[in-house]
Amino acid sequence: MNQTVIFGGEINKWSFYDFQGGRITSLFGSMEVDLTDCYISADDQTIDLNVICGSVTLIVPKEWNVLIEVMPVLGCIEDEIVSLQDTYIDPAASLILKGSVIMGVLEIKRV
Fold first, then answer.
1. Contact 31, 57 (CB under 8 A)
2. What is the DSSP letter of 62?
3. Residue 16, CA distances (Å) to 1, 69, 95, 100 in order
């Protein structure tokens, strides 16, 4: 998966049987990436994120273990994991988010 948006908007719904991670770049744009029809292999998968003056909404299955290693600089990261108190998180399905959010927003929704 390789998604880039510059001065625009994009909505994508991906479907992978063996999700291998990818790259997301948003420069002065807005992007929504829906991964609810994807399955992660046994190995950890990584998405490299670069959000500059834009926003990215990442929609993932609520069972995924999302590890956030993103550096916000005058930006914010919103993860709604606190509202899923009674949900089982599968430790074998780990998605690692790496990169930076500079004057932008990264929102992680779990459904």
1. yes
2. T
3. 10, 23, 14, 25
Q: How far apart are CA 90 and CA 81, in angstroms?
A: 13
pLDDT, tens digit, 9 for 90 and up, residues 53-83: 999 999 998 888 889 999 999 999 998 765 5
Size (the chain), residues:
111
pTM above 0.90, yes or no: no
What is the b/e burial string over 36-69, where b = at least 16 CB atoms within 10 angstroms of the residue's CB?
A: eebebeeeebbbbbbbbebbbbbbbbbebbbebe
Say if residues 67 and 91 touch (Cβ distance below 8 Å).
no
How many other β-carbons are positioned within 10 Å of the β-carbon of residue 86? 4
- Pairwise CA distance, residues 22 & 69, whole Å: 15
Identify the three-state secondary structure at position 33: strand
Strands of the chain (E only): list them: 2-6, 9-13, 22-27, 30-34, 45-52, 55-60, 64-73, 76-79, 90-102, 105-110
Tokens linked to 65: 């273990």
